[in-house]
Amino acid sequence: MENLIDKIQNELESLSTEQRNEILVKLRDNVDEIDKELVHLISKRTLHSVLIGRVKRSMNLATYNPQREKEVSQRISSFVEEPLSKEALLRIYERILDESRAIQREELNKGNIFNISAKKMRLGFSKLLSRKEFFIVAFFFFFILSILLYNFFSPNHYKGNSPVEFVVQKGETLTEISDRLYSKKIINGKIKFRIAAFLLGAERRIRPARYYIPNGLSYVGLVDYFMSDKADFLKTFLILNGSNIPSIASRLQSETLIDSAAVVNLSKNKKFLDSLSLHSNSLLGYMLPEKYDIYERSSPEEALRIIYKGFQKFLSDSLKLRAKKLGYSVPQIITLASIVEGETNKKSEMPIIASVYLNRLKTGMKLQADPTVEFLQPGKWKRLNYNDLKVNSPYNTYEHNGLPPGPINNPGKIAILAVLYPAHTNYLYFVANGKGGHNFSSNYQGHLQNVEHYHSWLNLSKKN
User: Fold this and answer.
1) What are residue 233's phi and psi, to 5 degrees?
2) How far apart are CA 404 and CA 396, in angstroms?
3) pLDDT one-digit tens code per residue, 177-210
4) How far apart are alpha carbons 178 and 197 in whole angstroms?
5) 8 and 105 inside one domain
6) Where are the alpha helices (DSSP H) in 17-85?
7) φ, ψ for residue 47 (rounded to 5)?
8) ∠ at Cα 292 (288, 295), nearest 5°?
9) Is 323 helix (H, G, I), strand (E, B) or coil?
10) DSSP labels for 263-320?
11) How many structural domains comprise the chain?
């Protein structure tokens, strides 16, 4: 029927007279079938009306009920569909209701003249199909069913060891998945797989993951397997600014099921670091804070390679040239960026703080950076005291000149760029202002005044 409608709406003028006559015959045949159904349904409705009339008479109720007919008209008007208008539909039903009332009156005057049985009240197969037509339909149904069973429920076998690993990538379409399954000879029919996926509603429900496909699955079984939880799913893993390796390893284990102890050990493994061409004693500082796509149960090596690749992608050749222009190596830039990251969460201040430390390095002053001493403290962060500042370690920038041996955290992009493109200042000192930021000064006298302001704010806060 849809093809006929398309032809009439889009191709009618281009059709020959013979083709138009064929369409006309088909349409008339359809109308004849519809008329047959309409007659049956109208008769069935009329029989119900007759029974309603008999029940009403047994209850001494009037046959005509205008309120009921009004409700029927309102309900019928809500069913209207094009091309019938609401008015046309109501006119048709008005005639049907008129005839129903007339038959009810005839029964009232002449007695129960209609012999109504349950058989008349239902539509049997014999009314719809002849015996021959019924067997044709049944044969066709079982034929189609047998094809479906054979094509979609028969097992598929691939060569080689079972199960076979198959990775669905992020953003991969059903067509791309079926093409790769076919190219790997896991299935022998791409179209069959797509049809099975369509029938099971799996077109958009196959998630990115590593699947381990057992041998002998049917197309339906394979699609069902792809929609199950029997896979290592792709997770989006976020590294936070300033985080350290143990915290990253702990979250990797909880979010992607990768062993945290193995991650920590591998991050300090010299052989592994050499394979990355990273001349450092640790990955600390080179695990760039951003989002990474990592499959569940990946090996620690795979996960760390993905993360380090993010750092390499960010640190472009132009940024390396910028570091060289400033007179620093990449490890030195990352080390200083980690100190800047440790000093503030206020991104707008990072280029200014970077300028302070770069100015100190130029003048030969000690950095005297609290974050480097906090790095040496066991456990969680604490407020530093005088004894902490005396600890004997090359990371203690209160005791040793220049940069510490390496990064103290994993600095974010903004902290790294702040060091590469610092603000142009002559500041040498800064102290917290009690409002989430810092006050800066270029001489020690100004610094002492800022420190006094900070202590005044601190004492006032304690009183409040």
Assistant:
1) -80, 155
2) 7
3) 999 999 999 999 899 999 999 988 888 889 999 9
4) 10
5) yes
6) 17-58, 66-77
7) -60, -40
8) 135
9) helix
10) HHHHTT-HHHHHHTT--SS-STT-S-SSEEEEETT--HHHHHHHHHHHHHHHS-HHHH
11) 4
pLDDT at residue 437, rounded to an integer: 92
CA angle at 111 for the pair 110 and 115, rounded to the nearest 5°: 115
Say whether both 333 and 414 belong to one domain: yes
CATH number (domain holding residue 285): 3.30.1490
The tokens for 72 are: 């029927």
Which residue range forms the structural domain that includes residue 23? 2-110
Last residue of a domain, one of 204, 229, 254: 229
Q: What is the pLDDT of residue 139?
A: 78
**Residue among 281, 310, 277 nearest 293 (CA):** 310
The per-residue pLDDT for range 330-352, each reduced to its tens digit, is: 999 999 999 999 999 999 999 99
Q: What angle do CA 98, 104, 110 make, to 5 degrees?
A: 135
**Strand 429-432 relative to strand 164-168: parallel, antiparallel, unpaired?**
unpaired
Residue ranges in the chain modelled with pLDDT below 70: 1-2, 4, 6-7, 110-130, 150, 380-381, 463-464
- Two tokens, residue 55: 């029940």
Q: What number of H helices and E strands is found in the chain?
A: 19, 6
Q: Does residue 446 fall inside a structural domain?
A: no
| Cα separation, 64 vs 53, whole angstroms | 9
Instruction: Classify each residue of 246-263 as buried b or exposed e, where b means 16 or more C-beta atoms within 10 Å of its C-beta.
Output: eebbebbeeebebebebb
